[in-house]
Amino acid sequence: MKYGFYPGCSLHGTGIEYGMSTTVVAKKLDINLVEIPDWNCCGASSAHNTDPLLAKALPARNLALAEQYGLNDIAIPCAACYQRLKMSELAVQKEETREEISEIIEMNLKGKARARSILEVFSNDLSEERIREEVVKPLTGLKVACYYGCLLVKPPEVAIDSTEHPLMMDRIITTLGGTPVEWDYKTECCGGALSLTRVDAAVMMTAKILHYAKLAGADCIATPCPLCTSNLDMRQKAAEKALGISINLPVYYFTELMGTAFGIAPNELGLDKHFVEAKSLLQNISAPAGQ
User: Fold this and answer.
1) Tally of domains within the chain
2) In this structure, what CATH number is given to the domain that contains residue 109?
3) Closest C-alpha to 86, from 67, 59, 65
4) 220-223: strand order across its sheet
5) Closest of 176, 177, 198, 178 to residue 189, by C-alpha
6) 52 pLDDT tier (thresholds 50, 70, 90)
7) End-to-end CA distance of the chain
8) Same domain flag for 77 and 162
9) What is the pTM assigned to this prediction?
10) Coiled coil: which residue ranges (predicted)?
11) 97 phi and psi, to 5 degrees?
12) Residue 290 covered by a domain
């Protein structure tokens, strides 16, 4: 299967382990991710707070580039990037808007390219059987709090799954042999947009999510969002201090858990790049199937 690939800025920086794990897992599953040549920043999260037209035009240029190269299905790991490209995709379905934006970006825009979350691609475009074929180290006994955040499921017009009770990631974890925990915070906002302007508020929002994942019996958290991961991982010590408790929950990209179950080496997945130590837990639960 062939997809256009939009890595976005974070996969080259704060979410580098997401980029590493996505690439190797896709290759394992025979998914051909073709990076869109000369892609540009999608504008998240400042453009749509500054200029509504700019917020459509920036991601629309990536849609136009994808069309030019015949990459009409665009796989996007970052939840924020997905939302911005999806909002632009929907906007340019209107001929008047499409013509206006085509003039701004000085490119022909047909409105054919489709923004797809990489979570959606792995969950909907692959069968459970295909994923299970690659599992050599099942995540037996691992209790995972699947945390979707808000950007993949809100607003409803861009949602890849249920806005309140998404299950795409849960199904993948189950297929890998792990156990998704039941909890009520899987789509709560982590305060990512406040990370620089209201750190105190972001810490408390993050702390609630971590606390309730721990209360649900989770051994770790899985996410599909670089911004959420940065908050839950990087700010975990601050959250522990704010709550006066120990949390110590590794925070993984769901692709890191897929790669672990597929037997891919930890350093190829970026497991050494976490703030909360993330290698030991997976080494303890991952044994070759049948042993």
Assistant:
1) 2
2) 1.20.1050.140
3) 59
4) 179-180, 143-146, 220-223, 251-253
5) 198
6) confident
7) 33
8) no
9) 0.94
10) none
11) -65, -40
12) no
